[in-house]
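Q: What structure does this chain adopt?
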Amino acid sequence: MKVALLTMFNGLDSSYSLVNVVAEQVRMLLDANIETRILVSDICPLNKLYGVFLDKRIKWVKVCNHLNGNQMHWKNYTHSDGEVHDTFFEEVDAIAEDLVKKLTDIDICFMHDIHYQGWHLHHNIAIRKVQDRLPNLKFLAFTHSAPATRPPNPKWPFSARYTPMPNTLYIYPTQSGIPALAKQYNVPEDRCRVVSNSLDILSFASDEVKLLAKHIDLLTSDILVVYPGRLTASKKFDKVAALCGAIKKNHDKDIKVIFCDAFPNLGVTPDTYKNFVRSTGVNFGLENDDLLFTSDIKESLKGFPRKGVLELFSLSNLFICPSYSESFGLTVLEAASKGNFLVLNEQVPALKELGTNLNAYFMKWDAKNFGYSTRETYLPSEEAYLTDHAKNIVKLMDNNQVLHAKTIAKQRYSPQWIWKNQLEPIMRSLTEMQKV
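A:
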């Protein structure tokens, strides 16, 4: 499949929100190994590309924006009647002739505000001429602003802003706008679809976090747990794994656990202890691939950077600290500052003090107190204890508006989710669509 994005951009300044929307779509298409072209105005500079626009797989295509050697100056035709400038239809023909050459082998063309914006009226008319000559070409017409109110009797060529085109689906970023979109273009609502704008959080991430994302899913799980610490038995990594297993087993939650471990200090080899932690998690309900030690990644053998941990906390939503002993618990503050639900060991004085100030959820694990240690016995069993608390934790997290928003924002508005659940199915249906 070959896809072209008809943008007619005169520049690629990221302060223009539509440039960012196009960049996200380009990334989705490239990740799906779809041949991608971006059509821009012939005055658009391409010497300062950035981000995904640097990808060598993109084919940049400049579209005619000159007539008889003179640059076309676009006019904002938002009215429904009147006159166009003298060279308007000559410009239309020149643009159409150029677009036919540049779209002749394309399967689907994404049009960004081409039908909507008054500034693009001559491109709007031109693309209709193109379709007459390329009848197998399919279109997705994206509208990125509130749909215009349809006037009672618009006159040609101004009526093109309110006239549907064959083999075209009309796209809006929210479901609430679909009725108004259908009215503007005079199409039934089943000719309209939703493709939300996406938030590519990982595009802003450090190289360390991007590397980690290649080894474990950071975006789509219902619960993401990050637990940084020195690889020692006193940090109780196995208790984190056990509680996460109980959550997954009993509450139909997809959960991922990342241990940012470093500087092992164990009576056994690090691999032996990590295998014990993994097996504990699996015994309580996790899958093997739900859990990752950053030290298992070659590039992170010497430890995962603290800055990267803070980034991960901005993606995670649950922090569990069953540590045997803490003098303060700085990671608790770090996790709290990034909007995580806190589960702390009540038996450790420092964690009890800090957690009380932070309104944390408390559980009881073995602990070292001042001058003595405590050891927990769970009746009827540790599994029952974890199951009860897992129920409470999940209920509290589900009812927390901030956590809900944080989780949904990264789950359902990631480029991966938008592609899989919205854009790819629409493209597939479009290729199967008969001319209407």
